[in-house]
C-alpha cells in the first residue's frame, strides 16, 4: 500500500486532499490500469466492471461522462459511443488500498454489450450456470454488426 493511502486510514471524515496527490498514488497495474466497477446510483445494481487508465479516470472526473480504457481496442472508450447507452458519473470512490474504483452512475438503457441491463447475468449455482436476465435490446440493434 502506498504512503498516501496509508495516511488516509487515519484521516478524519470530510478532510480534503489534493486530487493529483491521490491519483499519483493510485495502484494502477503493470499495464497502467485499475478495475472500475459501475453501479447504478439509485438502485445499487452492479452493472459492469471495466478498466480505466489515468487519462480515462481524469476525463471521467472532469466531464462527468464515464470513459474507460478498452483493452481490445487499445484506446479510450466513452461508454455509449457505439450504442448510445451512456453512463453519467454521480460519484467516484477508491477502495482503501487505492487499487479499485467504484463508480456510482446513471446508466441509460443496458450497460452490457449483450443488451442486458447488467453484465452480471450468469448465476453460478451448484453444478450449473443459469441465465438470470433477458436482453432489453437486441445487440444487433445496439451495435449493428460490431460489439460496443
From TrEMBL:
Record EC number: 3.5.4.19
Binding site residues for Mg(2+): 95, 97, 99
GO MF annotation list: phosphoribosyl-AMP cyclohydrolase activity
Catalysed reactions, as listed in the record: 1-(5-phospho-beta-D-ribosyl)-5'-AMP + H2O = 1-(5-phospho-beta-D-ribosyl)-5-[(5-phospho-beta-D-ribosylamino)methylideneamino]imidazole-4-carboxamide
Cofactor(s) the protein needs: Mg(2+); Zn(2+)
Positions with a binding annotation for Zn(2+): 96, 112, 119
Subcellular location: Cytoplasm
Classification via Pfam families: PRA-CH
Function noted in UniProt: Catalyzes the hydrolysis of the adenine ring of phosphoribosyl-AMP.
NCBIfam families, per the entry: PRK00051.1
Subunit composition and interactions: Homodimer.
Family, per entry: Belongs to the PRA-CH family.
The protein's name: Phosphoribosyl-AMP cyclohydrolase
Organism in which the protein naturally occurs: Halomonas alkalicola
Lineage per the UniProt record: Bacteria, Pseudomonadati, Pseudomonadota, Gammaproteobacteria, Oceanospirillales
